[in-house]
TrEMBL record:
<dbReference type="Pfam" id="PF04480">
    <property type="entry name" value="DUF559"/>
</dbReference>
<dbReference type="InterPro" id="IPR047216">
    <property type="entry name" value="Endonuclease_DUF559_bact"/>
</dbReference>
<feature type="domain" description="DUF559">
    <location>
        <begin position="10"/>
        <end position="116"/>
    </location>
</feature>
<dbReference type="InterPro" id="IPR011335">
    <property type="entry name" value="Restrct_endonuc-II-like"/>
</dbReference>
<dbReference type="InterPro" id="IPR007569">
    <property type="entry name" value="DUF559"/>
</dbReference>
<protein>
    <recommendedName>
        <fullName>DUF559 domain-containing protein</fullName>
    </recommendedName>
</protein>
Length: 140
């Protein structure tokens, strides 16, 4: 069963604003994640967790997906990202990161990478509740 992580309700308005103003890369990836398209798992976009907002989050897998734009290359932003990721990992959240450029240039392989990670997470954690539409042959 997925662990429930509390969040700061003051972040809800910002998360709503971020959902309305997604980057092109975020939009591309969201089109592949929404409506349980990715192996049947439910992902949220701009999800509040603890005192942070992650780009995409699957509660059942406790998996955050981050799309890093050019502004993430700034040293201060890199340190903040690292601290944020470390804090959320302490709460049990797993992370996978892609650059905005990577998502725009090669969405197909980004999706394949996420699928491989999900399959490996399921193999390592038999307690993960699988969606009814999950293809069990992927675990063989």
């Amino acid at each position: 069963m997925a662990k429930i992580i509390p969040y700061n309700p003051k972040l809800k308005a910002l998360a709503r604003q971020l959902r309305k103003n997604m980057t092109f890369g975020e939009t591309l990836l969201w089109n592949e994640l929404k409506d349980d398209k990715l192996l049947g798992f439910d992902f949220d976009r701009q999800r509040c967790i603890d005192n942070y907002i992650v780009d995409f989050y699957c509660k059942e897998l406790m998996l955050a997906i981050e799309i890093d734009g050019n502004y993430h290359e700034n040293e201060d932003k890199l340190l903040k990202d690292s601290d944020r990721q470390q804090r959320l990992e302490e709460l049990g959240v797993r992370f996978i990161r892609f650059s905005e450029t990577e998502v725009k240039a090669d969405t197909f392989n980004v999706i394949r990478t996420i699928e491989t990670l999900i399959i490996n997470l399921i193999k390592e954690n038999p307690d993960i509740k699988l969606p009814l539409s999950f293809d069990l042959s992927l675990l063989e």
